[in-house]
Write a structure and sequence with these properties.
With 230 residues, the protein is of the alpha/beta class. It is 48% helix and 10% strand. The longest helix is centred in the last third of the chain and has 26 residues, at 170-195. It comes from Microbispora maris.
Length: 230
């Protein structure tokens, strides 16, 4: 039995009351904000991108069919031969396949300080039942221009582009990535609106420090290192 199966919903809320969540769209600066908050407020960060590597050995075709299919697909075929909508519909996280792994991991972490989850894959419908306060989760959604600039800079590195898209046409893959991410943003926005969870627009007009201050207040984080907790 998994760790997740050993706990009732009420127990999970209690066990995860120290957890805060940053999710939303790609290229919104979530990891930069998470690092800033961790340094200023002595938080433990759960990095969803790094943690994803550990999901591979735990997934099964029966319980995670979309993730299993994705792992069997060569890089070159993940972004070619399909529309952006087809790629979006095949996302494992859209079907809730990765969130259980996140919870299992969080239950094994120390609870002596707040934990900040930085995870693109977290959807509002998944995290809402676990929140003691609605403002303990924030969904950052970048404007199309902000994302294009952020991801364009990221994938300008040929090695990073190959790691994501293999030897496929990188220009085509990048265009489909942007289109898929727009669909993901729409889904996040819709769910957050229905569940009354905070959505923050990222357009570049606020710097990291200002956004970190906003999130620290929203998350009710303790004070800076060396200060009295608030």
């Amino acid at each position: 039995m998994s760790l997740l199966g050993q706990h009732t919903p009420a127990d999970l809320v209690r066990r995860l009351a120290h957890v805060r969540w940053i999710a939303g769209g790609t290229g919104a600066g979530k990891s930069t904000l998470a690092q800033s908050l961790a340094e200023r407020h002595d938080l433990l960060v759960y990095d969803g991108d790094r943690a994803e590597r550990g999901y591979v050995n735990r997934c099964t075709p029966q319980r995670q069919p979309y993730l299993s299919a994705l792992l069997r697909t060569p890089l070159e075929q993940r972004w070619t031969g399909r529309t952006a909508d087809e790629i979006f519909q095949a996302m494992p996280s859209l079907h809730g396949e990765t969130f259980g792994f996140v919870i299992e991991d969080l239950l094994t972490l120390p609870t002596d300080r707040p934990v900040l989850v930085d995870d693109f894959r977290t959807l509002p419908r998944d995290v809402a039942p676990l929140l003691t306060r609605r403002e303990h989760a924030a969904f950052l959604l970048p404007t199309p221009e902000f994302r294009r600039n952020a991801l364009g800079t990221r994938f300008a590195d040929p090695a990073r582009a190959r790691a994501n898209w293999g030897s496929s046409d990188h220009a085509e893959a990048f265009a489909k990535r942007l289109a898929r991410d727009e669909l993901w943003d729409e889904e996040v926005r819709r769910q957050a609106r229905e569940l009354d969870l905070p959505v923050l627009r990222v357009d570049g007009f606020r710097n990291v420090a200002e956004r970190a201050d906003e999130l620290a207040a929203m998350f009710h984080l303790p004070g800076m290192r060396g200060t009295t907790p608030t």
